[in-house]
Amino acid sequence: MTVGRRTLLRAAGLATLGAVAAACSPDSAPPQQPPGSATPTTTAPPPSTKPSGPPDWNALKSKLSGDLVLPGDGGFATAKRGFNPLFDGHTPAAVAKVRNPEDVQACFETAAQRLPIAARSGGHSYAGYSVPDGGLIVDVGSMSSVQVQGDQVVIGAGARLGDVYAALAKAGRCLPAGSCPTVGIAGLTLGGGIGVVARKYGLTCDHLVSAQVVTPDGKLRTAGADSEPDLFWALRGGGGGNFGIVTSFTFRTDPAPGITVFSLHFPGGSAGDVLDAWQQWLPTTPPELWSNLVVSGGSPVSCRVGGAFVGGTAELTTLLGKLNASPSSRTMKSLSYGGAMNYFSGSSARQTFVASSRIITDPVAGAKVSDLAAGHKGMDLLIDGLGGAVADVAPADTAFPHRKALASIQVYAPATTGNHAGVAKSVSTVVSGLADAGASGGYVNYLDPAMPDWKTAYYGDNAARLDQVAKTYDPDGVLKFAQSA
User: Fold this and answer.
1) Which residues of the chain are in CATH 3.30.43.10 domains?
2) Using an 8 Å Cβ cutoff, are 214 and 245 in contact?
3) Cβ(55)–Cβ(106) under 8 Å?
4) How confident is the model at residue 19 (pLDDT cuts 50, 70, 90)?
């Protein structure tokens, strides 16, 4: 059985987003800059001389090694679009298909101060911020190489998870990440990176060694523990597109493990009791076990529990036996690392949806959650377990603040252009109800324009420091958008 992020636990149980780089996400790249190198070159116009009029697109086109696609060009409708068709009505001023850091620098030099600039990797921004009306999309999709180098891997910012997993599996290495194959590595990492082996190996951003970043002043910087440390801190969970445009990432990896995947289905009407049992059970399990629970709205409300275990079937069977809930069916399968990542992958087709999120810190009443889902046929509450290695990092050590949380909740509902407003209202109602039930906060990779007090929800006590980093690296708000740091 194949389980995808959206169906993830419709069958079992998960970039710039990255606000503007990708979130649930693809892509041939030039040789990567070696760690430690920084190549300052062109700079954007000084803040005191804000230019007037549109950018000189001909000048930018002459500087790019990739293509510049304008509204009058053939293929613009395809070039501009993100993952969610709800945002196909957005009309950016241009799409720059960049191939190297110098192309990104040229984009800043030409367009900074004149119009909004947004990076796009996988294009999964839940709020559509990677398709800015009247703005310049800097599409990093062509920078997609995945180079395994011993126990590290250098990944272009445009690479998508399906390609990342394939290259790592071939080399016998593992990087914890999400389940959707078309999510961009950029958005996923920059928002933190909740994934299917997170309890054992941590978040994607926890494995980041360094990143090559072009900041709005046109400089190519290496952000790492010993170079631009504040920027490095912010890139690990501070959201995509907030401080600069990343062109490549260097991660440490682990040896690829064998994984046993599982799926438990429960009778209709039992969702509240199963959620209560699951919340008590998960913290007692070893970090080798990752699990999630999907509550599906309707009448009756149904639920499924699924997950991945770094280990064999015998030990997993014992652990599942301690879950105080009786499934109506159970499946279990031992797979290679690559096979397990494929198991959690779903269709790469575009999907029209509305989504938001909440965070469970202390257990919430399962009956309340079930009641919230009742009547919302087609809506899923995808509850992904945290803890384990995620909690081994202090909340202030990276920008991702939810280190002590029990789980994240993604509220996901299919939509059409015709019923979008009604679906959005339903999602907001459920999100508010979850907060009333004790699940506050939110995950920045599931950006929601309607999220109350969004900065606190996404960043908690780290918000003030993120604001300062943004002022340092983007003092003129070149990359500013509605929910930027």
Assistant:
1) 16-40+59-139
2) yes
3) no
4) very low
